Amino acid sequence: MRCGSADCDDAERRTAYTPNVTRREDAGVRIGIDLGTTHSLAAVLMDGQAIIIPNLLGERLTPSAVSVDNDGRTLVGAPAKSRELTHPGETVCNFKRDMGTERTWTLGRKSMRSESLSALVLADLRQSVEEHLGQRVLEAVVTVPAYFGEDQRRATQAACEIAGLHVERIINEPTAAALAYGFGNPQSEAKLVVLDLGGGTFDVSVLEVTDGIIEILASAGDARLGGEDFVELMMEHCGKRILETEGVDLSRAADLSAKLRLACERAKRALSSAERASVVVAGVGPSARTFTLEVTREQVHGWWAPLVSRMQTPIRQALKDAGWMRSAVDQVLLVGGATRMPLVDGLVANVFNKEGTRTLSPDEAVAVGAAVQAALKADDAQVEDLVVTDIAPFSLGVDHSSEHGRHRVNGMFSAIVERGTVLPASRSHVFTTIDNNQRWVEFGVYQGEHALCEHNTKIGEYTIKGVPAGPAGSEQIEVRFSYDLNGLLEVETTVLSTGKKHTLVLDRSGRGMTKAEVGRAQTMLQSLKFHPRDALPNVAALERAEALFTTLTRDDRALLGELIGSFKSCLESQDPALIREHRQQLLVIVERLQQH
Ligand code: AMP
Question: What is the pLDDT of residues 547-556, one digit of tens each?
Answer without folding.
Answer: 889 888 888 9
